Amino acid sequence: MKKETTKEKMLDAAIRLFHTQGYAGTSVRDIAQKANVNVALISYHFGGKKGLYEQLIIQFFEDYLHILESELQKESESLKDLLLQVIRALLEYQSKQYLVARMVHREMTLDSVLVRELMSTYLRKEKHEFEQLIKRGMTGGEFQRQPVDYVIIHLRTMITMPYLSPHYLRELYQLSSNEPYFIDRYMEHLTRWVHTWLCGEVKSQPYQSSLSAQLI
Amino acid sequence: MKKETTKEKMLDAAIRLFHTQGYAGTSVRDIAQKANVNVALISYHFGGKKGLYEQLIIQFFEDYLHILESELQKESESLKDLLLQVIRALLEYQSKQYLVARMVHREMTLDSVLVRELMSTYLRKEKHEFEQLIKRGMTGGEFQRQPVDYVIIHLRTMITMPYLSPHYLRELYQLSSNEPYFIDRYMEHLTRWVHTWLCGEVKSQPYQSSLSAQLI
Amino acid sequence: MKKETTKEKMLDAAIRLFHTQGYAGTSVRDIAQKANVNVALISYHFGGKKGLYEQLIIQFFEDYLHILESELQKESESLKDLLLQVIRALLEYQSKQYLVARMVHREMTLDSVLVRELMSTYLRKEKHEFEQLIKRGMTGGEFQRQPVDYVIIHLRTMITMPYLSPHYLRELYQLSSNEPYFIDRYMEHLTRWVHTWLCGEVKSQPYQSSLSAQLI
Amino acid sequence: MKKETTKEKMLDAAIRLFHTQGYAGTSVRDIAQKANVNVALISYHFGGKKGLYEQLIIQFFEDYLHILESELQKESESLKDLLLQVIRALLEYQSKQYLVARMVHREMTLDSVLVRELMSTYLRKEKHEFEQLIKRGMTGGEFQRQPVDYVIIHLRTMITMPYLSPHYLRELYQLSSNEPYFIDRYMEHLTRWVHTWLCGEVKSQPYQSSLSAQLI
DNA sequence: TATGAATGAGAGTTCATTCAT
DNA sequence: AATGAATGAACTCTCATTCAT
Fold it and tell me: Is D105 on the interface with C (CB under 8 A)?
C-alpha cells in the first residue's frame, strides 16, 4: 500500500469536510485533526484555508474540461452517440470523485469573486463546446432545431443534478449518485431524453427496460 | 409608507446575507448591522442565529407546499394542463422571493440534521403529490408509461434549477431567474418538455416561437 | 477611591507594557491579563491592539501641543523667561505621565506610516511654535543670532532626552526622570544653557549651586 | 566583485529589518527572505534570532568603545581639541553604519536584561572615559567647573541624537544623519557648544559661518 | 423591547525553532 | 552548510450569546 503524503492527507480531509459542512462551516483545525497533521501545515503548504479550497476547485475544473475536450475529439458514428459518450464520461468523472464534485457544484451556487472567475474561464469553455456540438447537429439535420441555449442549460442541469442534490436522491429515492449502478440507470434516462427531445424520434412502443421495470 | 418592524428588518437583512454568503459565512453582527438594530435582538427575537435561519427555511417550505397542494385541487381540462399550472405557480412563488428560494435550495445540498428533517417532512410530501399526479396520468393514458421516480426527479430538477444556478444563468446567458419575463420563456421550454416527454406527442413541424426565434 | 472603568484599566495596563516591552513585544493577552479584563474587549473598545496604541500616542501629542500653545500665550517679562517657562511646563507634563512619554518618544524613532503622520501634524506644529519664539528673540536682540534649526533641534533633544534615555540616567547616574526633584535639577542645567548659549551672557564667576555642589 | 557569505547576507538583512521594524517587529522569516537564505540557517549560525541580534549590538559597542579609547590616547594640543576629535570620530563611526547605530540606540531605550548588561559594561566605560577627560580639563583650568555628570549626559545626548531621531531630522529639517555633509555642519554646532559652554569663551561677535548663514 | 458591555470559545495565521536529509 | 517539512505555542481578532440596565 502506497503511503499518503502529508499534502494528500490534508486534501482528503478537506474534501470530506468541505463537502459535508461547506467552506465557511469547516475550520482548519477540523481539517488538520482529521488528516492527523499539524494545523500550521495548511498555511505552509497551501497558503491558508482559502488556498487549499481553491486548489481543489480549480483542479476539478481543469480535469473536467480536459475530459470534455478529449471526449469531443474522439470519433463516433453519429453526433448523438458522441454526445451520449461525452455525457457518460462527465458523469463517470464526477462519480469517481463525487465529494469534490458536490463541493464544487455547491460553491458555484454562491455569488463570489472566485465563482465569477471560474464561470468566465471554465464554464464559458464548457458552454462553447456544447454549443459547437449542438449546432453541428442541428445544421446536419441530426438534431431538431430549437433554442440552443435552453438545450445546453437543460443538458448541464441534468449532468450536474446528481452532485447538486445527492441527499435528495438518497433520502427520498435511495439513489447513490456515486455508484456505477446509478450512472447506468441514469444514462438510460438521459439516452431517452437525447433521442426524443433532441432527435425528435417517435417512440413506437411503450417504455421497456429490464433494469427499471420495477420502478414503473 | 409602511414602517418596517424590527423583526422584519432583521429577517430582510438575514435573507440577503444568507443568500450571498451562506449560513456559516454570515455573522449575527453582519445581520444586525445591515438591519440597523442591536445584535442582542437576534437572540431575543429568534433565539439565536440558528432559530432565525430555520424560521426562514420552514416558512419557505410551508408556503411552497401550500401552493403545491392548493394548485393541485383546482380543476383543469387535463392533467397535462394541471401539471403545467402547478409548475408555473411554483416558479412564480420562488421568483417572488427568489433570495429565500436560492438560500433554501443551496442549504438542501448540505448534509445536516436540519436538512434531513426538512427532507422527510416537506420534500416527502412534495414527492407524494407529484407521484399521485403522474401516476393518475399514466393510468388514464394521458402520460406515457415510464419510471415515475425519474420523471419526478427530472421535473423537480427543472423547477429548482433557476434558483440553484442563478449566477450561471446570469453570467453566461444573461438570464435573470427572478424576472417575470424569464418565467414565460422558461415555461415555453417546460411546456414542450411536458408535451413531448411526458405525453409523447410527435412534433409534426420544426420548432416555432416568436419569442425565441432569434436564439435558434 | 474612584473606581476605574474597564477602558481605563486597559489603557493603564497597555501603557505599562508598551513602555517596557514596546508595541510589537506586547501581546493583547498580556494587556488583558494585567488589566484583569476579557481579551476581546480590546478589539471591542479600541478596534484592536493598533487602535489602542494609536489612541495613546495621539492623546499624548494632543495634550503636549495644547500645553505648548497655551504656555506660549502667557505673559512674561522676557522671551527668555517665557522659553524657560515653556520648557518647564513640557518637562512637567511628560513627567506626570512619563510612561506614555517614553513610549511615544521611542515610537518616534521608528519609521512607519503612523510616525510620518504624527511628524507632519504634531511635530511640525511644535517646530513652528519654537521657531516663532526663537526668531522673535533674535529680532529683538534678546537671543544671539545663530542657525535657528539647530537651536530648535538642540532644544527639543534636551526636552525629550529624559524620556528617551531614562534607563541610562537611572543605571549610570541614579537619576529618575519622573521625579519632581529631577526636573528642578535639570531645569538648572537648562537655564544655564539658555542664558549662556541663547542669550550669550558671560558667566562672571565659577559655577555655584547649593544643590549640585557635590557633583563637581 | 566580492561575493557575500551567507552569514553576511543574513546580518545585512537583519540590520535593515531591525532598524526599520525593531527587534520584536521583525520575524526570522522576514530576515531569511530578505537575505535569500533558508530560515533554519539563522538558528544554525547564530543560535537563534536573539543571538543574531545580540551579536550585532555587541559588535557595535565593541567597536564604539575601541574608537573612543584609541582616540583618547592620541596626542593633541589641548583637551578641547582632543574632545572635539573624539566627538567627530564617534559621529563618523556611527555614520558609517548608521543602520546599526539607530537600532542600538533605540534598543537602549527599552528596559530589558540585555540593556542592563550593556549599560553596565559598555556605557559605564564610556562614562568613565568622558569623566576622566572632563575632570582633567577642569583641574587644568581649561574647562569651566560645573557638574560633571550633566556635562557628560549633555554630551552623550548630542552625540547619539542624530541616530536616535533620524526621521525627525529628515522629515522636518531635510537633514540626513548618515551623510558626511551633515557631520561637518553638526560639528560646527558642537564646536561652538564646547567653546562657549565647556570653555566659557565669550563670543565677541555675532555668529558667522559661510555654510550656515542662510539658516539664520 | 432595546441597549452596550462583557464573556469564553474558537477562528485563521504566524511564530521561532527543530528535525531528517 | 544547507534545505524543506514539521512542530507546538502563541498571535490577533471574531464568534454567538448573555448580562444588567
Answer: yes
- DSSP assignments along C63-86, one per residue: HHHHHHHHHHTS--SSHHHHHHHH
**Cβ of residue D48 lies below 7 Å from strand E:** yes
C-alpha D100/C-alpha D20 separation (Å) is 11
| Cβ contact A165–B109 (<8 Å) | yes
Q: Does A145 touch chain B (CB under 8 A)?
A: yes
pLDDT in tens, A12-24: 999 999 999 999 9
Q: Do the beta carbons of residue C92 and residue C157 sit within 8 Å?
A: no
10-residue averages of pLDDT along chain D (216 residues): 82 95 95 96 96 96 97 91 96 96 93 91 96 94 92 96 95 92 94 89 53 43
Return the H-helix or E-strand segment holding D32. helix D28-35
C197, D196 Cβ separation under 8 angstroms: yes
Nine-digit cell at A118? 471560474
CA dist D146 and D142 (Å) reads 12
Q: Are B42 and B48 in contact (CB under 8 A)?
A: yes
Nearest Cα residue to A186 out of B109, B158, B154, B197: B154
Chain B partners of A216 at a C-beta cutoff of 8 Å?
145-148
CA–CA distance from A36 to each of A9, A41, A54, A56, B132 (Å)? 8, 11, 21, 19, 50
CA distance C15 to C12: 5
- For residue D108, give the nearest of C102, C115, C168 by CB distance: C168
Alpha carbon C177 to its chain's center? 11
For D184, the 3-state DSSP assignment is helix
Nearest to B116 by CA among A211, A20, A212, D93: A20
CB B163 within 8 A of CB B98: yes
**Which helix H or strand E contains C34, and what residues bound it?**
helix C28-35
Asked whether A31 and A42 are in contact (CB, 8 A), the reply is yes
Chains contacting chain C through 3 or more C-beta pairs under 8 A: D
- Give the CA-to-C1' distance from B43 to F15 in angstroms: 14
Q: Using CB atoms within 10 A of its CB, is residue A206 exposed (0-12), middle (13-18) or buried (19+)?
A: exposed
CB contact under 8 A, C212 and D168: no
Find cell 488583558 and name the residue: C32
Q: Which of A21, C216, C201, C186 is nearest to D202 (CA)?
A: C201
Within 13 Å of residue A82, how many CA atoms lie on the same side as its CB? 21
Answer for the pair D20, C110: CB distance below 8 angstroms, yes or no: yes
**DSSP E strand stretches across chain C:** none
Residue B44: CB less than 7 A from any atom in strand E: yes
Nearest to D20 among C111, C167, C209 (CB): C111
Strands annotated E in chain D:
none
As a 3-state breakdown, chain B gives helix, strand, coil percent values, each rounded to 5, of 75, 0, 25
Grid coordinates of A66: 480536459
**Separation between the CA of D190 and the C1’ of F1 (whole angstroms):** 49
- What are the cell numbers at B164? 440553484
The pLDDT-based confidence of C70 (bands split at 50, 70, 90) is very high
- Cα Rg for chain C, rounded, in angstroms? 20
Residue B203 has pLDDT above 80, yes or no: no
Q: Which of residues 35-64 of D touch strand F (CB under 7 A)?
A: 37-41, 44-45
Query: Which residue's CA lies closest to nucleotide F1 at its C1' atom?
Result: D41
For each of the domains in chain B, give its residue range(s) and CATH number, in order of start: 1-47 (1.10.10.60), 55-215 (1.10.357.10)
Burial category of A21 from C-beta neighbours within 10 Å (exposed 0-12, middle 13-18, buried 19 and up): middle
* Cell 433554442 found at: A147
Protein B104 CA to nucleic acid F19 C1', in Å?
A: 34
Q: Taking the model in full, what pTM does it have?
A: 0.89
Do D52 and D70 touch, CB atoms closer than 8 A? Answer: no
